Amino acid sequence: MPTIPYYDWIAHHAGRRPARLAIHDLQTARKFTYADLHARTDRLAAALTARGIGKGDRVALLAPNCAEYFELQFACGRLGAIMLPLNWRLAVPELQYILSDSTPSLLIYDKSFADQAHQLSTRLLEIDHERPDSAYERALATAPPPSPAVALGHDDIAMVMYTSGTTGHPKGAIITHGMNFWNCVNLGIPAMITPETVQLVILPLFHTGGLNCYANPVLHAGGAILVMRTFDPGAALDCISDPALGITHFFGVPAPYQFMMQHPKFQGADLSRLRIAGVGGAPCALAILEGWSARGVPLVQGWGMTETSPAGTMLDAADAIRKVGSAGKALMHTAIRIVDDEGNDVPAGGIGELLIKGPNVTPGYWNKPEATAKAFTDGWLHTGDAARQDEEGFVYIVDRWKDMYISGGENVYPAEVENVLFQIPGVADAAIIGVPDERWGEVGLAIIVRKSGEMLEEGDVIRHCLGNLAKFKVPQSVVFVDVLPRNATGKVLKRELRVQFVGSDKPAIS
What we know:
The termini are far apart. The chain has helices at residues 9-16, 34-50, 68-79, 92-102, 114-120, 135-141, 177-188, 208-221, 233-241, 254-261, 286-294, 369-375, 414-421, 458-468, 494-501; strands at 21-25, 30-33, 58-62, 82-85, 106-110, 124-127, 157-163, 171-176, 198-201, 224-227, 249-252, 276-279, 300-304, 311-314, 329-330, 335-339, 352-357, 376-377, 380-389, 395-400, 405-407, 410-412, 427-437, 441-450, 477-480. The protein is α/β, with parallel strands linked by helices. It is built from 15 helices and 25 strands. Among the domains are: 1-12 and 30-152, 3-Layer(aba) Sandwich (Rossmann fold); 405-501, ANL, C-terminal domain (GMP Synthetase, Chain A, domain 3). The strands form 6 sheets. The chain has a 9-stranded mixed beta sheet with strand order 2-1-10-9-11-12-13-14-15, with helices on both faces. Strands 16, 17, 18, 19 and 20 form a 5-stranded antiparallel beta sheet that branches. A 4-stranded parallel beta sheet has the order 4-3-5-6, with helices on both faces. α5 links the parallel β5 and β6.
């Protein structure tokens, strides 16, 4: 049995290219070679072992983008432990539910989230980049010698990523080491990722898009990632333009591309070194595609979800304008189907539910056997998206099978928001739909029926939501009605609400 498990990319590259840059943390100006990253990963693994953490134990991380995400990911891999990246946009009650469900043995947190961390756990380890003697750095410095790495296989769990739930609570999607590996293969080849790749990482690293499009594939190949703590369009354009940084790859949801395109620096930015600029997370408007294409950078579109690690389909740059709106075709080690309500494949041009199968797909949800069973049919994952394929096999996501909408690249499930709305004493009935928004693509519109005699106002509703939901889930506006339209079984008819308030029975983005 090998001492170093075969999936340990950092150990491999530390042996082959130890002096090559692996991570440049732009916020702190720290640079880590593969030898540095390997050594710090070893010390963190030893520090976790000293705290009693071993195979199968969960370790949570609550932090803005930083190099520690990758140190923890690979340290957990060496122990067989499970990384739990936490969405720092969530409110404390939402995080409490996740921690109660996943029961981590330790919460590592950035000092900017100290208040939240102390409300969530008593087993804590603080990151403070302003102090070289922070608790995190002391733990690494005083760690005992590392033990031999645990040998794991592709079916072992690498992390659990919580996604918004259609039933009002988030579900923990199980991410295996095999899923991470196959995502590197599926994305790495069409995205032309090599040891010479340099990517600017701007999406949140708690999100599969930030961690896996393309940061992990770049590290798998032995390239370098430049991590931006929080996205700033002007700063991002400066980085891309800087020949000393040599950025070749970029990935974002449509909003960052829109904000950069609208920035005064866009027309003068030097984009000539970009080989791949990927976009996903939400449909990309034609104006954005054309704006970047006019600067010589065709955007490469794709579709995926947390449960697919995330890449499922990808559109080649050459087809970005010709097949505008398409999510491309299935990636190499992935199969897709579009089926009707009876599970039969629909013909070209027909609309049905998109199903996906392959080694990149989750085996299920943490502590949710019923949700897992419901999500699969004969090994095919139900994505919840309605789609069609044209005669050439290009996939188009045309509707939401459920009522989810996307705000700024983040999925928002109405049931989760509605659960919070119903906590308000003056609310008799409530629903939420996504409505078009120039900045975020879609935002929430809360439609509320007041209890008799109540004087509930829009500000009351939004203030309550701000205290109990992540900001991107909070409705941007509220309307009050006498009654909500329902069908015979009592289900709210969202399509009628869309007709009334949007002018169409389709979701805001289709």
